[in-house]
Amino acid sequence: MADILGVTDHLNTILQRKDQDIINAMNRVSSSKKEIQEIRDVGWEPLLEKVTLFCAKNEVKVVDLEDEYYNGYSRRRGSQVNNLHHYQVDVFKEVIDMQLHRGGPS
């Protein structure tokens, strides 16, 4: 998240400057979207590694990513996805996709 927020914060700072012309602003939006897309494409493994190390250091229990995802309602219904899919696709990529789509066309 810090990487994504860093990209968007830098973009916001640049866009608030009065000396930006529209071409430079659009180029910066486009390059920021590319940076965020790269995080989406290759950022899961480094994030998972950081989280795992943090949890081990602080004695925090980590869910088994191969276990079936439980959404908090009913275990009887069964889930179609495991924890890995839920956290990687339904959370990580979904949040990044929201950032990519709210910026407008690239």
Uncertain runs are: none
For the CA atoms, what is the radius of gyration? Answer: 18 Å
Order of helices and strands: HHHH
What is the 3D shape? elongated
Structural class: mainly alpha
Number of domains: 1
Which percent bin holds the helix content?
55-70%
Biggest β-sheet: count, sense, barrel? none
**Straight-line distance between termini:** 21 Å
Estimate the strand proportion: under 5%
Overall number of strands: 0
Instruction: Compute the number of helices.
Output: 4
Average of per-residue pLDDT values:
81
InterPro entries: AtLOH3-like
Summarize the structure.
By secondary structure, this protein is mainly alpha-helical.
Describe this structure in words.
The protein has 106 residues and is mainly alpha-helical. The protein has one domain. It is built from 4 helices and no strands. It has helices at residues 2-16, 22-42, 44-57, 83-102.
